[in-house]
Amino acid sequence: MRLVVDVNLTPAWSPFLIAAGHDAIHWRDIGALDAPDSEIADWARREGRVVLTHDLDYGTLLAVTRATGPSVIQMRVEDVRPATVGPALLAAIQTIERDFDSGFLATIDPRRHRITVLPLRS
User: Fold this and answer.
1) Which one of 14, 42, 64, 69 has the minimum C-beta count within 10 Å?
2) Nearest 10 degrees: CA dihedral of 41, 84, 18, 29?
3) For the domain 2-117, what is the CATH code?
4) Rounded to 5 degrees, what are φ and ψ at 13?
5) Pairing relation of β-strands 50-53 and 2-5?
6) What is the pLDDT of residues 73-121, one digit of tens each?
7) Could you give phi then psi for residue 25, rounded to 5 degrees?
C-alpha cells in the first residue's frame, strides 16, 4: 500500500511500514508541518496514497466534501507508536488490500477495525 503518514504521527511509522513491504513517506519529508488537512488530502489524492493519521478531522473533511478520495486510515488509540498499534494496523491493511478497490475510510483500534467505502454521507 502507498501511504503518507500525517504530521500528528511519529516519523517512525515510515520505516515500520517500509519494513512491512509498504511504500510510506512522512508528510514532514514532503510538505510544511503546518499544512492544513485539505492540502495533505489533495496531495495524497494526486499521488495515489492513503493518509495514515490520528486526526479525526479527515472523516469530517471526506463527509462534507463527499469526496471519493483519498482513502484514509485513522487510528483511534491513545498510544499511536508502531510498537503498540502496528500489528493491528498491518492486519487491517491486509483486509483493506484484499477487499477494497475504491476509496475508503478505515478506523483502527487494537481490538477491531471498521471500513467504510467513500463517498461518506454527511
Assistant:
1) 64
2) 50
3) 3.40.50
4) -65, -35
5) parallel
6) 999 999 999 999 999 999 999 988 887 778 999 998 877 888 888 998 7
7) -140, 140
